[in-house]
From TrEMBL, chains A, B, C, D:
Protein name: L-rhamnose isomerase / sugar isomerase
Keywords per UniProt: Isomerase, Manganese, Metal-binding
Keyword match Manganese: yes
GO-annotated molecular function: isomerase activity; metal ion binding
Length: 423, 423, 423, 423
């Protein structure tokens, strides 16, 4: 873990400038009729979940270049997640992935308490074989063979069972099922098999749990995927029942798609389950959130803030990124703050003015109203929220100063790198 | 019109070669267990509707370069459509667009009888002002002003009224509504306004009619559209009721989208209304059907043939193209035949074998089964179907030989070309 | 024109808040080692050209909904451009389009003097027929018929001739040439014909002029375009000679393309001619600059600022947008300021730090260095630059207060709207 | 290997039908003025190289599901490649990948002789660490550290050295270099470093060798790649010298890009080096050639056939696919035949007629000329070419009948599957 001393020392250096920036921004926002402290309090209360797998170094089908001190198991991962939360105050929960993170519930709970974290949604894995008797090479929940589907259903039920013991309240299902060739699968029958299996999982869902299904346009299947877009995902959630919802991963869409509109539609029809935040330029690039198109992230949050307070509106927020060239802890801290930033900017939108411009078809002033909120530099708000929590004003700086990575590198042996024989 | 003599003379030249090709293909298909005459009969019975606006020369926002002998009004258009059907035997109906084709029902019916055509779906137009008192600049069915929505609803009801008098059984609604700027519109409220107005139209739909709504990703709105994809379109059809269905235009999707899968999903959930056939490489290019990616067209028909015979499965087929550099009559004939071609190829798929390969996850043989059907040159089947109807074996050749274009050019004055001052 | 009084009154209201914001930002930047006044001076000296056609209401192939008080001719257009420059102080020049803006040079020069503007690059038009004897339906500079090519060349030479008389120093050539069908054209021969014609134009270029050619992926041609991407455009500029350069329009690329990298490559090989600024989500949407992806615009300017000061580096900056739902004057003012904003943000990048992070492969800190500059709210810098020029602190507000649009609407009769019979 | 007996028995069953089909097609083509035997001879003489890595099962970043009897090393791979060539007669050469296929030249030559194969281009690998002292995590030929660049150069020189000893005449260089974040790299300096290192490789190229560089839009780098498109690749080849050429991989482009036009441009400027054939729907999907868009493949070959016979025109043809759900031997055989099919179809284009239609701007007949060639079922031509070589009329059927896969599965132990901890 990180010593509070390290953080405090780092904050001491930054505090004066931060207070000056915060005061100046406060005056500026006051002129716009906005109470900076109210915004800060909402930001301070906001949290985004960390995926346990995110703290390991990512890779591509070509290669994986491991970093130093990579976590060996879920307990190391929880340590790393604890560091992220300690430094940012923005990531109170962790989402486990089974079987990668399978462990005794008591030990998981103990570690969570130690690191000050709780457990978010459980993630099942039926896109790898992972030592199961039957292979998922040709699909899992939608496989032509009922025995394979049954195996995949049971794995999901196991994830629920484990999740119940550690306080999770949701199961996230993403499958790699699809096809690589026209004709390889009957797309309708494959969908129906998927639906049947998903219903079996849903039947095992505790009353106070939610089931999240996730669409993806392509990869690892390259001709069709069984849950290819939000339309299919909506139909699945609708067929399953009231506790089934759709997850939106920002990199799982076709090129040029208006993602904030998908968010708006899912909200409208009561099926927005939550997010896997990341950014992308080409496909499911899993880049750091906000690193490619920060305005798009803001526009998503603009929809969320607009829907805030609606009954039963409670989307789950999680990061989901692959850190191939950065220290995963640094990227996750940075990304958690980008999510907060978008949220803070969206809170600054003058919604009464916006509504007026929309009513009058004053497109220029309507869009300027959004841009004005977006271009406000809310960094002092975020940093002040951190300072008041005794998290770090500059989390990356404090992390580097702490020597944490070097320290764990000594305990954790270097992981194997490599990559398939794939071009 | 075209003299039967012209056609017969043209056919006389081609007949011997056609019969030889047909016989050889028949023997080949016989070895594959397929009765060529049965395929030919299904092809002969197949028809695709012509959009009345398709017989005029198209254009872009940059320019429109008129052709010779362009139709002046709906009666000229029906003449041209009659020529297309006479030569191909494949286009028995015409889809009108109001107000462009507004005319006295009795005269329309008389002309239809004269040209041997019937009327397909009616198309409303609320994407242009067209002399209406209120402007559609900021939307029509989804406009913020209820008076504009009312005007748009009434126009649609008028289209139904006219359609009833000429034997149409469906209304197609496509709107240009959307926005050009983030924030210009509240996407959820805009959708709800659209839905309310669409319900008003649906309320006026005769019992034996269907309502087709059409999604489109972009253009003329360039940030968001109110019916942006099939997911939203499905939700609209679902909300409206049992006689509301979704139209699929092959050029209205995001890049890389698997269109045949959308078709499969809409079939699965009972909401496939029909097609606007064309082809595209970049956007809503409205190119000739099958001219860019003929295999994709085949894969769509593969889904349709697979669903043939299901209860209540009766999608409407129409061409929808913009002919900027070709003679519209020639392009429409050629495209109608491309649609027939894809249908014929899809009929050749060995579905029992395919199903077996799918069951065994034999992806290579499954896809080869489709490819084998696709690569069969079915031209002799299509041509024989035409010959037997005394349509033209070579419609484009017969059309050119007929002198029709030159003849109508004398009667029909040159249309204005031009284009907006738009770069 | 706009009275200085109107502007001054508007500024008087805003000045105190602006001075407070500017002072606070100045202190903040000072802590980052940046002199705010130096940035402001660079921004104040920066200008972007207005395209004459931009002040008219745009449209799509579906419809054009005219606005009030649309300019009737080039002199009205220059009045509108004068207003834009008066209010923003950021648009000192206008780019004419021939034949739309053809007029007597003396009158053009007189009007320019009156409105305080000068003339930027000349734009030729061979994508419409515009009363020429030979049609461009099947191409212009690349047409199979040498007479058509000759006509197109002569038109370009005429544009140069006119441009010389009004002080222009560049010719911009964009053609709609391409094809709608595979096989319609031999793509290599078409390219060679284009090249030959472009060489004829280049031969007529004065010694102190530059020739800008512009690539575009699609539209109005929907299968291929003769200058489809920057690669082809580079080869053209290379073949033509030292005074030929490539223009980059932000909406003319394939989906997902890294535009800032194209800018970097063209700089590297000495062929970046300049920009047509706008924004796009789907294709050549011609939306307001920075309205969809402001970070992308910043990244382009990041390349430009990095290259500043290199010998012979002098790209031309112009807006090129289609204003379908906004007042063109307002959109152009707003867009000119967005371009300035991106420039100002790019000036804030700590380049020494960036270079260090790049050297050390510290991807996180490198990208954070860019983001830090981008998220700085530079509005006070831009507004102060305007205030000091006695342009408007709030150009849109001042414009609305001025009553200019209502005034010109009285003089300028309503333009025809409408749209082709195109779906 | 496969016994000739197995092939002969399989052919005996198919021969009568094939001869009937061939005769019928011959008569049909004769009516079109085409000599079927001449086409068959050209097809018979055509060969495409197999990449050694293609005979192993592919995978994605999510998982790799190994097949049975996967090759353990280059000698097993050559055995598999020998089978492919024996059955199709279409794949006379193999392209090695170093270090995966590193072995003693004498043994490689002996094995090649045994399997009846020769060696095509050598492929270097600097996108994985592969036991090198310095890591390629942050780049190889473009790394900021000259020592890393030097290591990468030397590896390429080693590939040349090995290649010389086994009769190869070309080196293919593809790098994964790029960046994942805006600002991570100075794109211009990175390019210059790449260029410098490539020049060092070029300096070591034997006089009778060619250097192929390959562009790719994205993956494994997800923000920028150092050779992102054909434009950059052209500039590299140009800078390097007369023996440097550009490779075109069909899956390495932006969405919607007109690939056949890129081919045409590279031919025009003398820099087309060759192809990596595969097919894709979304990105670098590496699907079987012709499986997604067979018409696109045909259009590429249409450009190649048009350029045939030009001086110094000699592109290298290779497959490059990832076989995730099929038997690699079957997919490679099938793909080799798809390449032949496209070639045969392109040979059928009536080029005199096409040229005439192009000259007259008869777009419909021009494109119909291409379509007519494309829709001709040339399978009898391909099969007859195989029969006459005593390769298999039905290679997949004969392969399955041969029991080869089961046989090698006994000798070759099951490979490890798995996949990274990457979502």
């Amino acid at each position: 873990m990180i010593d509070q001393d390290v953080i405090d020392r780092s904050n001491a250096v930054a505090e004066a400038a931060l207070r000056a920036d915060y005061a100046a921004l406060g005056e500026h926002l006051d002129r716009r009729g906005i109470d900076i402290d109210a915004i800060k309090d909402k930001v301070a209360a906001y949290g985004v979940a960390i995926p346990s797998w995110g703290v390991g170094t990512g890779g591509t089908r070509f290669a994986r270049f491991p970093g130093n001190g990579e976590p060996r198991h879920v307990f190391d991962k929880l340590d790393d997640c604890g560091v992220i939360h300690r430094l940012t105050g923005a990531t109170p929960s962790v989402s486990l992935h089974i079987p990668w993170d399978d462990a005794a519930p008591a030990e998981l709970n103990a570690k969570a308490e130690e690191t000050g974290l709780r457990f978010d949604a459980m993630n099942s894995n039926t896109f790898q074989d992972s030592g199961q008797p039957l292979s998922y090479k040709y699909g899992s929940l939608s496989h032509t063979d009922p025995a394979v589907r049954q195996q995949a259903v049971e794995h999901n039920l196991y994830c629920i069972e484990l999740g119940r013991k550690i306080g999770s309240k949701a199961l996230t299902v993403w499958v790699g099922d699809g096809s690589n060739f026209p004709g390889q699968t009957n797309m309708t029958r494959q969908f129906d098999r998927y639906l049947g299996a998903a219903q079996d999982i849903y039947a095992g869902l505790p009353e106070d749990w939610r089931l999240f299904t996730e669409h993806k346009m392509f990869e690892p299947a390259f001709y069709s995927t069984v849950v290819q877009d939000w339309g299919t995902n909506y139909l699945i959630a609708k067929e399953l029942g009231a506790r089934a919802f759709c997850l939106v991963d920002l990199g799982h869409h076709a090129p040029n798609v208006n993602i904030e509109m998908i968010v708006a539609r899912l909200i409208r029809f009561g099926k927005l389950g939550g997010f896997h935040f990341n950014d992308s330029k080409y496909g499911d690039d899993d880049l750091d959130t906000g690193s490619i198109d920060p305005y798009r992230l803001f526009l998503v949050f603009n929809e969320l803030v607009q829907a805030e307070g609606a009954p039963d509106f409670d989307p789950a927020h999680m990061l989901d990124q692959s850190h191939n060239v950065t220290d995963p802890i640094e990227s996750l801290m940075s990304s958690a703050m980008e999510v907060q930033r978008a949220y803070a900017q969206a809170l600054l939108v003058d919604r009464a003015a916006l509504e007026g411009f929309q009513k009058e078809n004053d497109a220029l002033m309507a869009t300027t109203t959004l841009k004005r909120a977006f271009r406000t530099d809310v960094e002092p708000i975020l940093a002040m929220a951190r300072l008041e929590k005794r998290a770090a004003v500059d989390p990356v700086g404090a992390f580097r100063a702490s020597g944490y990575r070097a320290r764990v590198s000594e305990e954790r042996p270097a992981a194997a790198g490599g990559g398939g024989g794939i071009v």
